[in-house]
Amino acid sequence: MQLVVGNKNYSSWSMRPWVLMRELGMPFEEVCVRFDSFAPSSQFKQTMHQLGSPAGKVPLFIDGAATYNASPLVVHDSLAIVERLFELNPAVWPSEVGTRAKARSACADMHSGFESLRRLCGMNIEADLSEQGATLWREHDGLRSDVARIDALWGDLLAHSSGPMLCGQFCAVDAFFAPVVMRINGYALPVSPNARAYADRVTQLASVQAWMQAALAEHDFLDFEEPYRIKA
Predict the structure, then answer these.
(1) Same domain for 129 and 71
(2) Which of 50, 95, 195, 224 has the highest local Cβ count within 10 Å?
(3) How far apart (Å, rounded) are the C-alpha atoms in residues 28 and 16?
(4) Which CATH number covers residue 76?
(5) Would you state the pLDDT for residue 66?
(6) Angle at 203 between CA 3 and CA 26, to 5 degrees
(7) If you average pLDDT over residues 165-184, what whole number do you get?
(8) Do 115 and 109 touch, CB atoms closer than 8 A?
(9) How many Å apart are CA 154 and CA 63, to the nearest integer?
């Protein structure tokens, strides 16, 4: 099995299945395709198309143990990848039906929602963006609304959780919100004590620590990924 990812410092969507597979001990070969730009002519886009991504995006899961039209199965889109991983490992989702439905709903919400947070606060593990975060927090109602809704969503799941994570033990929903935790940390976005404690638990997961360490080791500044960085 191969998982194709982008730069760990910036690629929030890549982080989700990588953290999920790593935390659950699912073996895979990592293939990293560096961001050079997202123009159709970029090396990144060309490489991703060659690997089988119709949109030219990461992540991409290449399952050599399964086939489609006599070729290795290639799955794009993080939610679709998670569902394929669930077929390989039931620990991807909670075992109880209701809890599993709630976890899937939260993942879908993250996948399609929270537009202001994602647009304004691009993931950047290397940078201290607390000053930028304070400015964005003051100026954007949408950002405050998104964070409040995430805080409430986490609070509701944790109130019914049987374990330290959102739906008991670690599963896909925690992996999906790991990049949100990176944004809360990096931009110093204010959350409730309950949400802060959960964010700290996610940050300390072995898989998240490994991703962060690899992101810090990249030393690959991409100016087109950081139009928001405040200059001294």
Answers:
(1) no
(2) 195
(3) 14
(4) 3.40.30.10
(5) 93
(6) 30
(7) 98
(8) no
(9) 32
